[in-house]
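Homework-ish question, so no full write-ups if that breaks the rules, but can someone show me the predicted structure for this set?
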Amino acid sequence: TKEEMENRVHDIKKRLGNRLYIPGHHYQREEVIQFSDSTGDSLQLAQLSAQNREADYIVFCGVHFMAETADILTEEGQTVILPDMRAGCSMADMADIEQTERAWIKLQDLFGDTILPLTYVNSTAAIKAFVGKNGGATVTSSNAQGMVSWALAQKERILFLPDQHLGRNTAFDLGIPLNEMAVWDPHKDELIYEGELEDLKVLLWKGHCSVHENFTTANIETLRAEQPEMNIIVHPECRREVVALSDYAGSTSYIIKMIESAEPGSSWAIGTEMNLVKRLIANNPDKNIISLNPNMCPCLTMNRIDLPHLLWALESIEEGIIINPIKVEKSIADNAILALNRMLERV
Ligand code: 13P
Ligand code: SF4
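A: Not a homework solution, just the prediction itself:
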């Protein structure tokens, strides 16, 4: 039963003490997050992994790229475990390294040595390594503005991987007009743009988050007509048009802070992952909170980490046959850490 499984997780946590560390992303299920030692957004979890030097086992409750990042930032003797290997991220999978290297050659032909690559942390370790090797950095949704400004102070233009929406929303907020942005289509190997080639400053990889793309301008129009008192707050992984029509946009931590500090009695429609929205509803009974899209589902891959998988991972530690260790190859990790450190030094 659920209760038995919960008791076993409690017992293992007690026995392992500080040798075990369980970070949990805000999009994780409640049945898992109740056992996490720290919760956070992707930036906070990366920082916490870099700081933790005492745990032998880091059981990462999040998705594959986050566990890879934790492995890169921890030390040799620390083992990172992902309770279910199927917990990937469809956005991270939208940029593979072969496509990226091909794109880089073509873009260098077009623009010479004027481009700095940046990658959202929601990307594979191989992409982070590519970016690190070429002088660029990682970015998260909570530091994207600062990182894009930093990059544009180094080079005339950036290549932003793999989320076109976070890239476009961030650049737009920095005052870069849409006609100075282009989209690189990795399937057609082609740059799509409307303005002048030489004016392009921001080259966006054609990737997106399949969860946040489900929020639409139609959702906002319906809500404005039916419940005009609602404040609308969305994650910058949503499309530009959706962010433009919203009242507020920001990272997962920003959304949490805004809701927690909102006036009692205020009304909020939130455009982000459903496990988090449900938790915000439960933790803020004095506010009226709904999802911006009434048909929204949780992120399917985040959801793969459930109580049975968490327990399985923990039991495997005690049995000494560790399941799903995440180990990034050294040649990749050595370059990926350059990109991560350029970010961590600046936040
Ligand atoms: P943040 O945690 O940076 O807000 O990212 C959201 C996300 O989609 C994580 O997968
Ligand atoms: Fe990937 Fe989107 Fe799920 Fe985050 S919410 S893990 S970006 S698919």
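Now go work out the reasoning yourself. Hint: Residues 41-43, 89, 122, 140-142, 209, 237, 251-252 surround 1,3-dihydroxyacetonephosphate (ligand 1) (CB under 6 Å).
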